[in-house]
Amino acid sequence: MPDPPPLSTQSIRRYYEQNTRLFLSLGSSPRAYSIHRAIWLEGVKTQDGALNTSNRLLLAEAYDLAASSRLCLVDLGCGIGGTLFYLLGHLQQPAFGVGLTISPLQARLARQRACQLALDGTCLFVEADFLSPPVAGGIDMVYSVEAFVHAAAPEGYFEQAARLLRPGGRLVLVDDFLAQTPASAHNSRSQEPARQRWLEAYQQGWHVPNLCTLARAIELVHVCDHALEIASSYRAQGPCRVEFSIVPGEGCGVSEAPRGVLYHRYVVDEQGLIRFARITPPTAQNFAQMEADLWKLAPSVVNLPQEEASLAFEHLLRSYDPCISCSVHFLKLKIDRE
Questions:
Q1: Strand order in 274-280's β-sheet?
Q2: What CATH number does the domain located at 9-180+190-232 have?
């Protein structure tokens, strides 16, 4: 069976263009006007109450913020605007909100609803990718409800959120995350391939390429925050490059990469054009040892079912932290059982 096509911004846009009206008719209500799932926390007794659970959580976060005059909100992945309408209708202080969605249909429905609620003067809905939002900084609260999982590049999401937020502003995510309990705590090893198939089916069916653990999401926030600190504190010392004159020759160098040592070799001609280049990354250097380890592991897994054997080999390969393309495409297992 061929691998499903990778999820992209374009495929996610098509998904919502095709299904938004369906979600609105099956899973919402006229009062909630939401395509988010209902969350039945303790004490919630009605469908509208469950649909507004995430909205109430966000409202509580907004109340905690001390805005100087008017509270500024940005909804990254706003859908049809239900959450923003709820917040603007319940906040006790002046507020203005911007909602971003990649779906032209959702943006159009949100604008129509804003006019019906007489909120069109306090909110704006824009068709845009939240990985490159056309919004200036200084925002009090940035949030997403069931949208972060659609980010093809989660680190890009946090980078943009950091750019948008004012110092002391708040980022709030209401979304799906992978459970951090090891699979072995609930399932035997033989059930792992089936669990993985269901997980992949969920990600493809709901178009959620970015399904990570909460710990991973928090780690990305800290990484982006630290990167911004380094960038903002940088002070140039001396020239930014070394002056040079072009001469033909051959040279090599060694540098440290995240996965190990990286070797370079180049040949340059009289015009400064590179006539030969060879880069040997850590993954290439590890291939021989990876293959040797696969041979050692093979006798212990060769009698397992195909999927379990493949999973065991993949675990071994990924312990070497190969590049993404190698970790995904390196292994094609075929077992001849005679």
A1: 249-257, 260-268, 274-280
A2: 3.40.50.150
